Amino acid sequence: DVSAEFRSNRLNPNKDALKSIAASINVSLSKQAKDLTFFYTEEDSYKACKSYGDYSSFVERFPNGKFKSKAIDKMIAFEKSEFEKCASISSFREFVMKYPKSSFIKNAKNEIVRLEFSGCKKYKDYIEFLKKYPNGIYAPKAKEKLDAIEKEIDRSLNTISTVTDCCALYRKYDADPGGKIDKKAYSLCNSYADLSEYIKTFTSFKADAQKRIDEIERRRVIIGVAIAAAVIILIIILANSN
Predict the structure, then answer these.
(1) Which helix (H) or strand (E) holds 133?
(2) What percent helix, strand, coil does the chain show, rounded to 5?
(3) Among 40, 184, 226, 235, which one is most buried in terms of CB atoms within 10 A?
(4) What is the separation, in whole angstroms, between the first and last Cα of the chain?
(5) pLDDT per residue as tens digits for the range 10-30
(6) What three-state secondary structure class fits 121?
């Protein structure tokens, strides 16, 4: 769309000059520029920004530009909008990954910890939480929960008197801090049924419990054989007496 005179006197000589410069620094000019915003002025580049990525790229390109602060304000607005949409652990984690330098990162991480704490229900949940956040803001509350559960278990142990009750107590909390329930359950094993119930749930004295079970079964076999022998002898005696 230029005149022949302009093309001949201005455009072509300038193109040749550029090619000569490019060749001297080993740069190819054979490809057409795809991102025409590269040729924009700072103001035009700012006006062309639409997304978070656009403003981020703008700040990188014009780190000392007069529109930098406005671009950063736009980025913060984007971050705030995205942060306010987060409602789950996964969404906050995605936010942290997407905006690692955001001013809302600390808030997002705090929300992750809060939601993880609120998701704790059982004894082992609080144990795992403390392993992950031993010095976190919810660590004291997690320790309080553990103490409360342990005290409740202790109170229950003082009232139960059967192996079945011990098994039920263990299932209720899915935990046995200090092995107290296990120990109490084994101390209550007085029969074959007790021992069988014990080894289904507990492990500390499982080997001893199994030995006792084997001994009871061995005695049962001996008694059974003895009874069978006695019956046979009785039958023989009765038969001979006739």
Answers:
(1) none
(2) 75, 0, 25
(3) 184
(4) 136
(5) 888 998 898 889 888 887 766
(6) coil
